[in-house]
Design brief:
The complex is a heterodimer. Chain A has 12 helices and no strands. By secondary structure, chain A is mainly α. In chain B, the strands form 4 sheets. In chain B, strands 8-1-10-9 form a 4-stranded mixed beta sheet. The chains are: A mainly alpha, B alpha+beta. The interface between A and B is large, with 96 and 95 residues.
């Protein structure tokens, strides 16, 4: 490849404009083109590592990748699925340790969560009436296919476990009486099946986002499962704190704190360790949501510890954890979208590889 | 069939997908952009043959491109790129032509006169209500700017040689007809949860519109930003390499319509040889910037079924410089998800251990 100095600067290169623009500083590299030419790197917000200055060229600043066609249904589906997963884990433990109120609350939440999750997933399809085509094949390279089957196993199990909670409403005699007596063991069995698939349900969604060309998602593929897994535990714990009496909510509080800690650490790494892709998490829309998510998650975790003797504080903390968990999904989602809209996230790292003489080769 | 190269590396895609009886040679495109004239015959022929809906004809306010990028309703896209360059690279026949940036006298005069050129342009053309012939308006403008009388005829001098050498730009045009790459490792196909996307016996990648349920996963998976969801239809669409035509021994519509053989259709093996010869030829002629893109079976997507000869860096044409199929890292993704899942189970066990409140 011959170097090509002529034609420098055109087609013009455009930068995603954001508040970061103001923080961009020259690192003594004269001649970095700005304005109409030249993208610039800059400080990663929040005092993270510096991304080197990067000049890049593009086709009139137009994006290279297609922005995801997914609407807000998809982050909502990620959140409700995680919520269901965290709740089922708590429900299984609650049924073993005889915490009846906690079990009832979390089994119900799991069913509501997975119901909502399935609705959001189908609603976001271009042809919702064809949702069953997902059941034509099993494809390990498609996290959505894998997820469909996880959902197919988990959904009925969570549904049966929640349905078993209705047993006390049945008469004590006759066929229905038999159903009433069987509800306990059947519910336990279903609850165990749901708990066994719950971690897969909560973490496969991270692979779903990572297995794309969106730089911010793909580059986070080692960390996203921990962000989503932690977030799922935090939201499950939040449900327990919100709906169960203080005396039974101990495991929920501990789960919430552990989940929140994992989520916050993994998210911090995502925001600082991915080079240029980390910058996508500092673009306006994702940054606002992620900051709010972190504040709510921290508040919820602190409330879980300090407010363990107050029903009101526990409930409020549970709500904060749930909101934080939802905002995490929306923030991560927005970051991926942002990284597809600005060609810099695609061109700069790839061009750097080529410049270093290390293009990807098999 | 899963083999070590199923996710990454060189591979013959059709046999790998199970087409082992009556094997066909892999088919593809070699698009030689050095002879593209930007006529858009490929775009038109593709839309005609495949009944692809119209999706807007407005200029985008950049070069002469009114398509923008590939999408559900554009399966061929001709990119137009203007670059300031000395005419004829400053070689002997062009000695004496002015170099440097364009003159802006006319534009300045128009602006100074308070004329909104864009608003004016919108009324140009005698077919517009209240419109007027272009020539009249151009003549008026030239007179206002103190130029010669405008006769509406092209000059006889070489560009920039006339007395009014100003207003001339050194410009080089690049045109390139972009298309779906029909990757060896096609992320769109790998992530499709319904099996709507499949590998044909020709090694190409095609969407079955009667199966697609519009989940949109392929759109986010494509490292080239090719496939997209059609507005109002909900399903994903892209180039099929004219599966219907080539199945009948024919040539895809775009290649058939290309007047300069910029788009060449054939067996990928043969096209790769042809492309290598063409690059050598151009290098020998002093066009050092000629390079191939997507021809290498060892690249991040295992080589493209539709590859290109370019005259500048790929990103200048809106192509990613060094794309990698996202599924290369799938093993690592599932592994980390597994670790996180096991961790969740561990936390669940731990919070109930000890039997406290």
């Amino acid at each position: 490849m011959a170097p090509d100095d002529a034609g420098q600067g055109t087609p013009g290169t455009l930068r995603g404009t954001s508040a970061r623009e103001a923080r961009v500083h020259d690192q003594g590299r004269g001649g970095a083109r700005r304005g109409s030419g030249g993208g610039g790197g800059g400080l990663v917000g929040g005092g993270g590592p510096q991304v080197p200055e990067a000049d890049f060229r593009s086709y009139y600043g137009r994006p290279i990748l297609k922005a995801p066609v997914w609407e807000w249904d998809i982050p909502a589906y990620l959140f409700t699925g995680g919520l269901a997963g965290g709740s089922s884990l708590l429900a299984a433990g609650a049924s073993v340790t005889g915490r009846d109120d906690l079990r009832r609350a979390t089994r119900s939440a799991a069913l509501v969560g997975i119901g909502a999750s399935t609705y959001f997933l189908i609603n976001d399809l271009g042809r919702p009436e064809r949702f069953y085509n997902m059941l034509r094949i099993v494809r390990v390279t498609s996290p959505m296919s894998v997820g469909t089957w996880i959902l197919s196993v988990y959904g009925p199990a969570a549904g049966a476990a929640a349905a078993a909670e209705l047993a006390p409403l049945l008469p004590e005699r006759g066929v229905l009486g038999l159903a009433r007596r069987l509800a306990g063991p059947v519910g336990s069995l279903a609850g165990w099946a749901a708990a066994a698939t719950a971690p897969a349900l909560a973490t496969y969604t991270a692979v779903l986002l990572a297995d794309t060309a969106a730089p911010a998602w793909h580059d986070a593929h080692r960390l996203l499962p921990f962000v989503f897994g932690g977030s799922a535990l935090a939201s499950g714990g939040g449900v327990g704190m919100l709906a169960a009496p203080l005396a039974q909510a101990g495991p929920a509080r501990r789960m919430a704190v552990a989940g929140a800690a994992v989520e916050l650490v993994a998210e911090r790494l995502v925001e600082t360790r991915l080079g240029l892709s980390s910058e996508a998490f500092h673009e306006d829309a994702p940054r606002r949501k992620l900051r709010a998510s972190q504040a709510l998650t921290v508040a919820g975790a602190v409330g879980a510890v300090l407010g363990r003797r107050s029903r009101v504080v526990s409930a409020l903390s549970g709500l904060a954890l749930l909101s934080g968990s939802a905002l995490t999904r929306f923030g991560v989602f927005d970051a991926g979208v942002a990284s597809t809209k600005d060609p810099r996230y695609v061109v700069v790292p790839q061009r750097e590889r080529v410049r270093r003489g290390e293009p990807v080769r098999a | 069939m899963v083999s070590p190269t199923s996710f990454f590396g060189p591979l013959d895609p059709a046999p790998d997908a199970g087409w082992t009886e009556q094997p066909q040679p892999r088919k593809g495109f070699f698009t030689d952009t050095s002879v593209c004239i930007g006529c858009k015959a490929c775009e038109v022929a593709c839309k005609e043959w495949n009944a692809v809906p119209e999706d807007g004809l407005d200029l985008l306010g950049m070069s002469y491109d009114n398509t923008g990028m590939l999408g559900a309703d554009s399966w061929r896209h001709v990119a137009f790129i203007e670059q300031p360059r000395p005419l004829g690279r400053g070689s002997a026949p062009f000695a004496g032509t002015p170099t440097g940036p364009s003159g802006t006298d006319v534009a300045d005069a128009v602006t100074a006169a308070g004329v909104d050129a864009l608003a004016d342009a919108s009324r140009i053309g005698s077919a517009q209500p209240g419109g007027f012939p272009v020539v009249d308006r151009a003549a008026e403008r030239v007179r206002e700017a103190g130029g010669q009388q405008f006769l509406g005829m092209p000059g006889t001098e070489l560009p920039g040689r006339s007395a009014e050498g100003v207003g001339r730009s050194d410009v080089r045009w690049l045109m390139a007809s972009d298309v779906c790459k029909h990757c060896t490792h096609a992320a769109c196909l790998d992530v499709c949860p319904t099996g709507a996307l499949f590998r044909t016996e020709f090694g190409t990648v095609v969407v079955q519109e009667d199966v697609c349920n519009g989940c949109g996963y392929c759109v986010s998976a494509c490292p080239y930003g090719v496939i997209d969801k059609r507005e109002g239809d909900g399903r994903a669409w892209k180039c099929t390499l004219c599966y219907d035509r080539i199945g009948d021994g024919g040539t895809p519509a775009c290649a058939k319509a290309c007047p300069t053989e910029s788009i060449q259709y054939g067996d990928v093996d043969e096209l790769r040889e042809r492309a290598a010869r063409r690059v050598e030829q151009l290098h020998a002629a002093g066009v050092e910037e000629a390079r191939l893109y997507g021809h290498d079976p060892h690249d991040g997507v295992g080589g493209d079924g539709a590859f290109f000869l370019l005259l500048d860096e790929p990103e200048v044409y809106g192509l990613p410089p060094d794309p990698v199929v996202t599924t290369r890292d799938l093993g690592s993704m599932w592994k980390h998800a597994g670790m996180a899942a096991v961790g969740m189970l561990g936390v669940a066990l731990a919070v109930f251990a000890g039997g406290g409140s």
